């Protein structure tokens, strides 16, 4: 089931300027953009692509669905 879209919350989160992303977060974001740009949108495919060419997850040996979800929450808003 898709996550509901809440425009005011989304705009607030997209315009935060309190802290720049870390180098790790920036590399992960760039890699995810590249993966999505290749048409890979399913969780298993994204995890496999991250394991192929990184970046490696912080605090784990390998990407899994659980690790990716935890990273998105940790790096989130």
Describe this structure in words.
It is a single chain. The protein has one domain. Helix content is 58%, strand content 0%. It contains 4 helices and no strands. The chain has helices at 7-14, 23-37, 43-53, 65-75. It is globular, with a radius of gyration of 13 Å.
Q: What are its keywords?
A:
77 residues, single chain, mainly alpha
Average pLDDT confidence is: 85
Task: Kindly state the percentage of residues in helix.
Answer: 55-70%
**Residue windows where pLDDT falls under 50 for at least 5 positions:** none
Overall structural class, as computed from helix and strand content, comes to mainly alpha
Strand content: under 5%
Overall shape: globular
The radius of gyration over CA amounts to 13 Å
Largest sheet: none
Count of DSSP helices? 4
How far the N terminus sits from the C terminus, by CA atoms, comes to: 20 Å
The ordered string of helix (H) and strand (E) elements is: HHHH
- How many discrete structural domains? 1
**Based on DSSP secondary structure assignment, what is the total number of beta strands?**
0
